[in-house]
Write a structure and sequence with these properties.
By secondary structure, the chain is of the alpha/beta class. The chain has 2 domains: 220 residues, P-loop containing nucleotide triphosphate hydrolases (Rossmann fold), CATH 3.40.50.300; 61 residues, 2-Layer Sandwich (Alpha-Beta Plaits). Helix 6 runs parallel beside helix 7. It is elongated and about 70 Å long. One of its GO terms (molecular function) is ATP binding. Belongs to the ABC transporter superfamily. InterPro entries: AAA+_ATPase, ABC_transporter-like_ATP-bd, ABC_transporter-like_CS, P-loop_NTPase.
Length: 308
């Protein structure tokens, strides 16, 4: 039970073919309670297909998804009761007030939702001032927050959002980011956010899962400092003996060559001095060392390399 609470969403070796083409290939990852994970990948990488499988909008060809310890295959109802999601724009009744939307959706959930819970959620998404107004008068950001309120009424352990900032102005994006951080860090909800806005993921998320061609190619620390984890970087070494340096750097992790440079992925700034010392001991001349710290730089390094 402790592991299920710590990792409320576990995706195990899932696969999916559509139109005779394998879109998702033996894909696995898990998310930790109380943290926000970015879900990143180029167009066509399989992000939306993966999310649709997790929330049971489409079936799995192979593998399993466990939500709160319940299998989506064998305990579908229990599994789905643990998840909240906005996969497309939230379905709202615009002619009704925000409160009436919440009451209506509360009646549709399997779990009893009290009036106190509805009031609690209204405060959480900071819609107190407008909750009794018709939804058609709401801004896009307010509608998005109401959609999130609907998805967390039943107190899920996992919240999944597909491109939640689409159409929001900078103020709306900032408000949504602040709200999601509070929800994860104060309420212990695990949040998976699929987005193409890398700068926003970097500001919002604790970790990022990167997929390409239906496979997870890496998981990166973004702002995950709670366990004393050091910030991951890609270190770039310009040297005179590429082959010799590559052989040495392989001891420290994944490397790739680029002209007269070798890039060591997923190291930390703290490790670099000892790596430089090891290169010098091998009589390898080092002309320059730099870091690709931003998520955008690391993301492009990862997604531009070939998937095997």
């Amino acid at each position: 039970m402790e592991n299920q609470q710590a990792r409320p969403l576990v995706v195990e070796n899932i696969s999916k073919s559509l139109g005779g083409k394998k879109i998702i290939k033996d894909l696995s990852f898990s998310v930790e309670a109380g943290k926000i994970y970015g879900f990143l990948g180029p167009n066509g990488s399989g992000k939306t297909t993966t999310i649709r499988m997790i929330v049971s909008l489409i079936g799995l060809d192979a593998g399993d998804v466990k939500i709160g310890g319940h299998s989506i295959r064998t305990e579908r109802e229990q599994a789905l009761s643990q998840i909240g999601a906005i996969v497309e724009n939230p379905d709202l009744y615009e002619y009704m007030s925000g409160r009436k939307n919440l009451i209506h959706f509360a009646r549709m959930t399997n779990k009893k939702v009290t009036t106190e819970r509805i009031d609690e959620v209204i405060k959480m998404v900071e819609l107190d001032h407008a909750i009794d107004k018709k939804v058609k008068t709401y801004s896009l950001g307010m509608k998005q927050r109401l959609g999130i309120a609907l998805s967390i009424l039943h107190e899920p352990s996992v919240l999944i959002l597909d491109e939640p900032t689409n159409g929001l102005d900078p103020k709306g994006i900032r408000e949504l980011r602040s709200y999601l951080k509070d929800l994860a860090h104060n309420s212990g909800v695990a949040i998976l956010v699929s987005s193409h806005l890398l700068s926003e993921i970097e500001l919002m998320c604790d970790r990022a899962i990167v997929i390409k061609e239906g496979q997870v190619i890496n998981e990166l620390a973004v702002n995950d400092k709670e366990q004393g984890e050091e910030q991951e970087v890609a270190a770039v070494f310009e040297v005179n003996q590429l082959e010799k340096a590559e052989a040495l750097l392989l001891q420290y992790g994944t490397v790739r060559k680029e002209e007269n440079r070798i890039i060591l992925e997923n190291t930390t700034v703290e490790q670099v001095p000892s790596i430089v010392s090891a290169l010098v001991k091998q009589e390898i001349d080092i002309y320059h060392v730099s870091y690709k710290k931003s998520l955008e730089d690391t993301y492009h390094l990862l997604t531009e390399k070939e998937v095997i």
